[in-house]
Amino acid sequence: MLQREAEIIASAWQYPEKTCVRISSKGHDVRTSNYRSTDHRLIESIKIRQKEAGFVEVGYIDDVPPDSTEVFLEDETRLLSRLKQADEVREARQSYLKVLEQNLQDVASSFATRVTDGRIRLSPREMEVSNLVKNGMGNKEISDLLGISVLTVERHRHNIRRKLGISREKVNLATYLHEL
Predict the structure, then answer these.
(1) Which listed residue, of 7, 53, 66, 123, carries a Cα 20 to 30 Å from 148's Cα?
(2) Do the domain assignments include residue 128?
(3) Which residues constitute the domain of residue 175?
(4) How many domains does the chain have?
(5) Same domain, 6 and 65
(6) What region does 55 belong to: left with phi over 0, alpha with psi -120 to 50, or beta?
């Protein structure tokens, strides 16, 4: 998929025949067939959940025509920035999809019935947080996904532990929820 994106980016530039692209993201490194390091290039970092995850580099292999005052058009610079944002949105969507998929599996499993047991009485938000914890997400990831602060996530975790009767025990909450 990244290779296709690299080819599309190259074709969108002012001089596509002189444009080379390199995308490095999460351990994958793809380049157009004509890629080489050049003096005329733009580099935009890719961030996922506020962490560096790679970069997109676009460059011109040969000098651009002498009549052009700017090597890159303003639109090209803006486009590269927008592509970076699109990558960040795609990552967030994949996280949501993963959570939704797991939630659908949990509805059919005994986890949902045990956690919604009348004796436990978790709030809807605590149910959400417990599902995410069970799926291996950390406090920061949960806060980003739900749009709440890390402290609020910690408070929900504390309440979940209390309602499950494990607040004074040295038990990993994710492990406990998996075993339900």
Answers:
(1) 53
(2) yes
(3) 109-179
(4) 2
(5) yes
(6) beta
Cβ atoms of 170 and 158 within 8 Å: the answer is: no
How do the pLDDT tens digits run along the chain, 180 residues long?
678 888 888 888 778 888 899 988 878 899 999 998 887 788 888 776 667 778 888 888 876 555 544 666 676 766 676 666 666 666 666 776 777 677 666 654 556 566 656 567 888 889 889 888 988 889 998 888 888 999 999 999 999 999 888 988 899 999 888 787
Is 64 domain-assigned?
A: yes
Q: Output phi, psi for 68, to 5 deg.
A: -90, 130
Q: Phi and psi dihedrals of 75, rounded to 5? A: -65, -35
Residues 172, 157 contacting (CB under 8 angstroms) = no
State the Rg of the chain over Cα: 23
Q: Is 11 a member of any domain?
A: yes
